[in-house]
Specification:
Layout: H1 2-25, E1 27-39, E2 45-49, E3 54-62, H2 63-70, E4 75-79, E5 86-91, E6 104-109, E7 112-131, E8 139-146, E9 149-155, H3 156-160, E10 165-169, E11 178-185, E12 193-195, E13 198-207, E14 209-219, E15 226-231, E16 234-242, E17 256-258, E18 267-272, E19 274-276, E20 282-287, E21 290-297
Parallel strand pairs: 1-4, 7-10, 14-17
Antiparallel strand pairs: 1-3, 2-7, 3-6, 5-7, 7-9, 8-13, 9-12, 11-13, 14-16, 15-21, 16-20, 17-19, 18-21
């Protein structure tokens, strides 16, 4: 009985060894990803499109071999030294895939790579401002760049269509008059680089005005028991008005000329003319700038 158990045990172990040997040598198929690297692109050329990061390879090998493939990083180096301007078709040669013996390559996807190749060009382009808000009536904005133009490098056919670089300018407070300076990164097409890649933009917001001349009677406040005489009693006012107010400037009651009495004794006083203006208007000149106010007893 003991001998039979020994024979049975040996037979079982041999069967297990034979089963592993047969199953381990059986060929099965699987997909393996291979990273694509590119070398040898001639100087003065640039690839516009068509580059792929990896290819999928269908292989046949033993189960044990496939387990080792899954744990390795494979790379295929594609030579670009013979490419030319225009469309290029390059084959992924299965014979050069980085697999050791025992691995059969059945199919590569994609098996051909289509590259659009262009020459490298250089161009100097001006910067153009795009203000990203609608300004209030009578307001105007101006943008200056430092530097005002940049040198761009990229595919020649792309540069041929570029006449300038549009830079978006945000305006947080469109009714705030003054200057704001900030840095803007240049928006560029794919494959195009700029030197410098960013510029300083200065936004100046002001009001569109037009010079007008109006005549006003000089106003003065005096004690009710005194008579007052103003010489001259009218002045001419040169004022830069917002364009929307120009047509009604002559009748605009918000334009007022007056003098301020600081003393109320009888006598004559030569005083500067003060002017009150509507919002957005700017005083240029008053003629005459001073008038004489005489106070008399009624």
């Amino acid at each position: 009985m003991k001998l039979r158990w020994k024979e049975f045990t040996v037979a079982f172990l041999m069967a297990v060894v034979l089963w592993y040997g047969v199953s381990g040598s059986e060929k099965i198929e699987s997909q393996v990803e291979v990273r694509m690297d590119y070398r040898g692109l001639p100087q003065g050329l640039v690839v516009r499109s068509g580059l792929v990061n990896k290819v999928s390879v269908r292989v046949r090998a033993s189960a044990g071999m496939l387990r080792t493939l899954a744990n390795r990083d494979y790379a295929f180096y594609l030579d670009l030294s013979d490419v030319h301007k225009g469309e290029n078709v390059l084959a992924v040669n299965m014979a050069y895939l980085p697999f050791r013996s025992g691995v059969e390559v059945i199919e590569v996807t994609p098996s051909r790579i289509f590259l659009d190749v262009d020459t490298v060009g250089t161009k100097v382009l001006p910067l153009e401002a795009q203000i990203m808000v609608e300004l209030p009536e009578d307001y105007v904005a101006h943008v200056s760049f430092n530097p005002p133009e940049v040198t761009v490098t990229g595919p020649a056919t792309v540069l041929d269509d570029l006449t300038g670089i549009a830079v978006q300018i945000p305006v947080e407070n469109p009714d705030q008059i003054g200057e704001t300076t900030f840095t803007r990164l240049l928006p560029l097409p794919d494959g195009v680089d700029a030197s410098p890649p960013e510029v300083k933009a200065t936004l100046s917001v002001g009001i569109k005005r037009k010079l007008v001349k109006v005549t006003r009677t000089v106003q003065v406040t005096a004690p009710p028991d005194m008579g007052k005489f103003i010489r001259p009693d009218k002045v001419n006012i040169d004022v830069a008005m917002p364009e929307s107010l120009v047509s009604k400037a002559a009748a605009n009651k918000d334009i007022r000329a007056f003098v301020q009495l600081t003393r109320h004794d009888l006598g004559s006083y030569t005083l500067p003319v003060q002017v009150e203006l509507p919002d957005g208007a700017e005083l240029i000149a008053v003629d005459p700038p001073r008038v004489t106010v005489t106070l008399e007893q009624k």
